[in-house]
């Protein structure tokens, strides 16, 4: 079985509360009171709807299965962006943890070309694959737009923004303006600044800009169908395993494992 951290309340209301287990609540403070702790423990009590059976994966190690958390978040973004086989896709923040996984996942979903845009050249190199075109961002929106658009072979169909803690909007805007007509931009990063949108460009190009928080309730089940079919290789993400007793070391290592590494804590 694999455990999701994203809980949405089961109330039939327009805006049910939600939380990330052990992390934060978004309109779900009462829920957080019931499930205040995370899973860094020998045992945890969680709502049953967060558990997905993984039949047929008995030969895989729990540590390798745990790395699926890197894929499940961008999976929600690609679903929201309606990524289709044959599309050209852009990932901004591709040199980060979720961005690196988003590149690999786009390939698994059938993207004909993936433009991996980020600032860390070595991390972009680690994601190098057939059908992946890396673009090292400079922070100059006009230049970065041109570079991404050229790498996409013209306008892309869909872009997924996973830039964490952005202090300027340039990477996000570069991805938006590198879209072709009818293109979609999905925002899943954590920009700390406003994103100024060119109203007329948005209208003239029929662009869609949408936000997406996490993934659907059946996300893990659908993700593992890609693994079962041999389309997605979990081993692309390397687990770095620590015992629960070594939690401080694990926390310190989490920021150093690279875009295609994942710290896993075991009881």
State the shape: globular
Taking strands numbered 1, 2, ... along the chain, how are they ordered across the largest sheet?
A: 8-7-6-9-10-11
The largest β sheet comes out as:
6 strands, parallel
CATH topology of the largest domain: Rossmann fold
CATH architecture of the largest domain, by name, is: 3-Layer(aba) Sandwich
Helical content band:
25-40%
Any idea of the CATH class of the largest domain?
Alpha Beta
What is the residue-mean pLDDT, rounded to a whole number? 93
Please tell me about this protein's structure.
By secondary structure, this protein is α/β, with parallel strands linked by helices. The protein has two domains: about 1-50, no CATH class; about 70-210, Rossmann fold (3-Layer(aba) Sandwich). About 30% of the residues lie in helices and about 20% in strands. The chain has helices at about 30-35, 60-65, 70-80, 95-110, 120-125, 140-150, 170-175, 200-205, 220-230, 245-255; strands at about 1-5, 5-10, 20, 25, 50, 90, 115-120, 130-135, 155-160, 180-185, 210, 240-245, 260-265. The longest helix is centred in the first third of the chain and has 12 residues, at about 70-80. The two termini are about 15 Å apart.
């Amino acid at each position: 079985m694999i455990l999701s951290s994203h809980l949405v309340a089961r109330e039939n209301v327009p805006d049910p509360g939600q939380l990330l287990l052990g992390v934060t609540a978004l309109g779900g403070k009462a829920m957080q009171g019931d499930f205040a702790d995370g899973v860094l423990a020998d045992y945890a009590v969680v709502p049953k709807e967060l558990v997905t059976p993984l039949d047929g994966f008995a030969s895989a190690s729990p540590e390798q299965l745990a790395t699926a958390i890197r894929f499940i978040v961008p999976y929600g973004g690609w679903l929201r962006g309606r990524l289709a086989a044959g599309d050209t896709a852009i990932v901004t923040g591709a040199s980060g943890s979720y961005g690196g996984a988003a590149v690999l996942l786009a390939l698994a979903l059938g993207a004909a070309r993936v433009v991996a845009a980020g600032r860390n050249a070595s991390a972009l190199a680690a994601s190098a694959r057939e059908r992946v075109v890396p673009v090292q961002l400079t922070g100059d929106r006009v230049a970065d737009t041109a570079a991404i658009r050229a790498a996409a072979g013209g306008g892309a169909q869909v872009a997924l923004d996973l830039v964490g803690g952005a202090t300027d909007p340039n990477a996000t805007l570069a991805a938006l303006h590198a879209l072709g007509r009818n293109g979609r931009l999905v925002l899943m990063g954590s920009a700390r600044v406003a994103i100024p949108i060119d109203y007329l460009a948005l209208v003239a190009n029929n662009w869609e800009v949408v936000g997406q928080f996490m993934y659907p309730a059946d996300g893990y089940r659908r993700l593992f169908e890609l693994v079962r079919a041999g389309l997605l290789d979990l081993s692309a993400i390397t687990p770095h395993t620590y015992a629960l007793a070594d939690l401080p070391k694990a926390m310190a290592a989490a920021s150093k494992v690279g875009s295609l590494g994942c710290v896993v804590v075991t009881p």
